[in-house]
Amino acid sequence: MIQNHRRIPRRYGRSLLLAAAVLPLLLGGCSYYHRATVQGFVEDEATGTGINNATVRFYQEEPNRPSSSGFFARTSTSTSGGNPGYYRNTVVWDRYFSEFGAEGDSGTIYLGVTHPDYQGRVIRMPGILSDDINTLQTIQLQRVTFAAGEVYGRVIRAGDGSGVNGVRMVLTVPDLDDAGSPTGSEREYVAVTGMRTGESGWYSFDEPSWRDASTDPGGSSEVDARIEIDDPDWKGENPEPRTVRLISEQDREVPDSMRAVRQPRSEFSATLTGRVLYRPAGAEEYRGLAGVEVEISWSDERGDRSEIRETGPDGSFTASLSWQREEGYLPPAGVPEGEDMLRASEDQLVVEYRHQKIDAADEDRGRGAIRSWVTPNRMPDLYLEESP
């Protein structure tokens, strides 16, 4: 349907015409040259909202697809006068037998309209009048891309049920054809577990999307996605991906935490923290003691090793330790699969504190164990008091 150009002010049309691309539309001979401006809107079929960033292609002959090659002009929709979805272009053609002779002509063009989130369309537009601004009928597109809300869940250690941070998770969402079956095209989303409401091991995917060509206009869409642990250091206790049903515009908590075990490895690491507190004579409260030298020493396959740290203004210190085991090493009983621990007896683990305010009897405080699956390992606070 062609609307008369008087509904849009001429001055408005002239200002946009300066930026319009002028490309030839060959409809016949070359005796008469004609020009026409075409404009209109592209909108969502269900909501009536204008769609920006849609591509509008202009064809002389009807194309096989909305994105076929052979178009003679192309433009994109944008916001104009506060209204999204607007497009405008100028076409020029020459014709031996014009409809109105040298005074003007009338012809037909085809528009191919595409957008990543919508089903493309080819529209026939007859009655394009030369030397005029032709306002075309509004083109409606059906949405075929949908998105869920937040998809979230938790990963826990298979041994003790504690949350595990730093695990790489992958959510795979298939696209659906007009029969609602997977097309073979899939979208992958990646998340890493971390803290949520004070608990470790939580992952979250924000608005994963998919295409569904089978949904009625304005309807919702559902799809079966797959979620799995895909991490070099961790694997699922059950290696098969888990299926989760996603519904467009709805949050989804993945039921039942996924149980993870460590991949076999020979190198381990852990973080150790501690604090030294001091109470001067006559004071009521302890305060952090800065400048205390803390030496952590241990042995592994590479020999004797040590790390030295110094307490800060609040009396605390943090050290990162790593150690190596020989192939085939079996950790002590009770250690989760893929984990290990440094122990005082077997690995000569010792933590020593040195400061002028520390007696020799208090220097050696670290005969215990450091566990690779605990973050962080906390040393008991060392309390010191000044003698009156």
Automatic annotation (TrEMBL):
<protein>
    <recommendedName>
        <fullName>Lipoprotein</fullName>
    </recommendedName>
</protein>
<feature type="region of interest" description="Disordered">
    <location>
        <begin position="203"/>
        <end position="224"/>
    </location>
</feature>
